[in-house]
Amino acid sequence: MAATAAGVGLRGIGHTFGNGHTVLRDIELDILPGELVAILGPSGCGKSTLLKLVAGLETPTAGEVLVDGRAVRGIDDRCAVVFQEPRLLPWRDLAGNVALGLPKGVGRGSGRQIVGHWLDVVGLEGFHRHRPRQVSGGMAQRAALARALVREPGVLLLDEPFAALDALTRLRMQDLLAEVQRGAGTTVLLVTHDVDEALHLADRVVLLDTQPPVAGATVATVLDVPWLRPRDRAYPELAVLRADLLERLGVPRPTPAEETTP
Amino acid sequence: MTGRAALGASGASRSGGRRSARLGRLAAGLVVPLIALAAWQAAAGAGVFTPSQLPAPSAVLAAVAELVRRGELWQHVAISGQRVLLGFAAGASVGLVSGAAVGLYAPVRALLAPSIAALRAVPSLAWVPLLVLWLGIAEGPKIVLVAIGAFFPVYTTVSAALAHVDPHLVEAGRAYGLRGLGLLTRIQLPYAAPAVFAGLRLGLAQGWLFLVAAELIASSMGLGFLLIDSQNTGRTDILLLSILLLALLGKTADALLGLLSRFLAGAT
Ligand SMILES: Nc1ncnc2c1ncn2[C@@H]1O[C@H](COP(=O)(O)OP(=O)(O)OP(=O)(O)O)[C@@H](O)[C@H]1O
Ligand SMILES: [Mg+2]
């Protein structure tokens, strides 16, 4: 891996869209190089928007994003994004699509080799020459992940990358991500709806939420997940954190049966 | 390995199937012209029309031979072809560039789109007197008229197609470092390519339409001239021949453009 992990600093980030809709406000967060941070929050609270701000696809209306200590201005080539949808070019095969992610200045031959390597890593060996519409949605999303990985990014931005996968493939891809992250040491921002996914993968879980009279979501809770990866999914301590997170997300603990019986 | 081999074999048979399907489509396309030819022959033979109203196919063949002998056939075809080619090249180029500018840049759209729409509303033949006044009666006005005809369909389809490129794909392209020309050639143009080629084919067809209009009005050569001249001299055989030639040349040009689009689609 050529690129070294970069830290991310969010300094008082706020974002209001052109139509006057305030989505994010006062976000303060420091993400260490090599850290894997999961971002949880209700639908529509601005998680995708936050990733776009870090990637430089949008400019925050307040505050500043720092990558590796330097402010993000415009598209930042230290970051690579996997969007909520695969967003593959239908006229290129999977290899051609993944090649789009190659950093500038990689030769044709070595580029092809890198592309082939990462396609195999995400489990798409034998599908390099397939067009996006010839593969399943889950396979397309894995190709999108490979497109980001060939960039060897300092910061990997993942927007619910596994939401469209079937349950088993999702578990496999989570383990793959953990492995890639361990191997490359890349900083990862992972937006997810899946509390278990967050707890399985993240060093810290950040909860975004709104406090109703004030418009815009902000950091409501930051939770440390202090166990080393790879983690056992059946780890009992995780269950406690899980119940806590779910409660904060508005899913209350089931009341024990003894209490309801008179 | 066996799986890969089986895949290759099925691929080969599929391309064989595709070829025979294409031949079948070609044959199906010839059915109606052959029926029309038979009906024409029958009508001419039965004496429904006088020979000066409807000459037999053989008479038209004889007219071909006559024009070839006089060395005129090639001349008419060549000059018409040249006018369409030059006019189409000019009109389509301007249409592509202005369509791209209007489709991609909102300020250019605000500036140019209404005026071009107003110009398009002018019936094409209304330009003829002005063109003759400014450019005389040589090649200039004919080529310009063909260019006008080719411009509008190309401009309209290209601007619409480029304005409606999937914003998700454009954003993905930007996220992976594409800007300006790179974004245009890697994302926007390939996305819009089918519509762009449909526009080019429409423009070419309209180019032929305007060619005949131009040659009918003021010319001493070309297929449009042949049409009006044969009408004046009562040579219905040559008149029919001109119509057949226009159909044949128009279809050939369209097929060549279709081949080019398929070649380019394979290249991306
Ligand atoms: N370009 C835009 N212009 C105006 N509003 C926008 C724009 N993009 C997003 N929004 C609004 O911003 C809010 C947050 O959107 P965002 O996609 O960031 O939410 P999210 O947390 O990712 O939601 P989900 O979990 O459903 O993916 C939404 O209310 C959305 O309607
Ligand atoms: Mg989202």
Automatic annotation (TrEMBL), chain A:
Protein name: Sulfonate transport system ATP-binding protein
Pfam families in alphabetical order: ABC_tran
SUPFAM superfamilies the UniProt entry points to: P-loop containing nucleoside triphosphate hydrolases
Annotated TM spans: none
Signal peptide: none
Source taxon at top rank: Bacteria
Keywords, alphabetical: ATP-binding, Nucleotide-binding, Transport
Annotated InterPro entries: AAA+_ATPase, ABC_transporter-like_ATP-bd, ABC_transporter-like_CS, ABC_transporter_ATP-bind, P-loop_NTPase
Entries under PANTHER family matching the protein: ALIPHATIC SULFONATES IMPORT ATP-BINDING PROTEIN SSUB 2 (PTHR42788:SF19), TAURINE IMPORT ATP-BINDING PROTEIN-RELATED (PTHR42788)
Higher taxonomy: Bacteria, Bacillati, Actinomycetota, Actinomycetes, Streptosporangiales
Residue intervals of the ABC transporter domain: 8-235
Entry keyword Transport: yes
GO molecular function: ATP binding; ATP hydrolysis activity
Keyword Ribonucleoprotein: no
TrEMBL record, chain B:
Domain of life: Bacteria
Organism per entry: Nonomuraea jiangxiensis
Chief place of localization: membrane
Alphabetized Pfam families for the sequence: BPD_transp_1
One CC-aspect GO term: plasma membrane
Segment forming the signal sequence: none
Coiled coil region boundaries: none
Similarity field: Belongs to the binding-protein-dependent transport system permease family.
GO biological process: alkanesulfonate transmembrane transport; cellular response to sulfur starvation
Gene3D superfamilies: MetI-like
Domain ABC transmembrane type-1 per the UniProt entry, residue ranges: 73-257
Protein name per its UniProtKB record: Sulfonate transport system permease protein
Keyword annotations from UniProtKB, A to Z: Cell membrane, Membrane, Transmembrane, Transmembrane helix, Transport
Transmembrane feature ranges: 86-106, 118-137, 143-163, 208-228, 240-265
Compartments (UniProt record): Cell membrane
Membrane topology: Multi-pass membrane protein
